[in-house]
Amino acid sequence: MEHSTGGLDKRTCEDYDPAVEWSHTDDTDTVMISLPGFKKEELRVQVDNLGYLRVHGQRPAAAGGSSSNWIRVQKRFTLPDNCDIDGIRSKFANDTLTVTLPKKKSHPSPPDGSAPEPQEDDEEEEEKPGGGRRPIRWLLVTVAAAFFVGIAAYVAWRKLTSSCAGAGAGAGDHGPGELAGAGSYVREM
């Protein structure tokens, strides 16, 4: 698929769909993405607050870089539920981007099989269906999360409907589907 970015820069981008391979161990999940012809400086690996790992980048189609034809890659993966986001690492070597997704350490139960003592919470509680009790904090966190997800979805929808130009238009521009702005957090790896 080809896209032309508006403005002075008349780039034509061809989307590249790379080969992706996942591997799993007890401690980590690893995703390997084959990106022949790309350089480390042409790629970005980001994690957002919605639970996605994003890999994107672009490079000139010709070796010299003087052509207006570019090759673009955009991949988005849902992070596993047990992923330790702070431990994610990426490495680019031999035309392959390797992203390591460490798993959260589970806390083993005591050897005697007894459960840990529950800690008392001084917060007000609300009645939940089925007779149990739930802290008010849970309700507040749920409402706040729904609010930010709604804002992020609205921002994404506005970006998609207002511009289909995409990557490469300028330093502050964001491509379709990139959730930058109110209610989103993106951390570059």
What features would you highlight for this structure?
single chain, 189 residues, alpha+beta, six-stranded mixed β-sheet, flat
Q: Give the low-pLDDT segments.
A: 120-132, 164-182
Q: Calculate Rg over CA atoms.
A: 22 Å
Give the SSE string. EEEEEEEEEEEHE
Average residue pLDDT: 75
Structural class: alpha+beta
Shape: flat
Described by its quaternary structure, the protein is single chain
Structure characterization notes:
This protein is α+β, with helices and mostly antiparallel strands. The protein contains 1 helix and 12 strands, in the order E-E-E-E-E-E-E-E-E-E-E-H-E. It has a 6-stranded mixed β-sheet with strand order 1-2-7-6-5-12, with no helix packed on it. A 4-stranded antiparallel β-sheet has the order 3-4-9-8, with no helix packed on it. Strands 10-11 form a two-stranded antiparallel ribbon. A hairpin with an 8-residue loop joins strand 6 and strand 7. About 17% of the residues have low confidence.
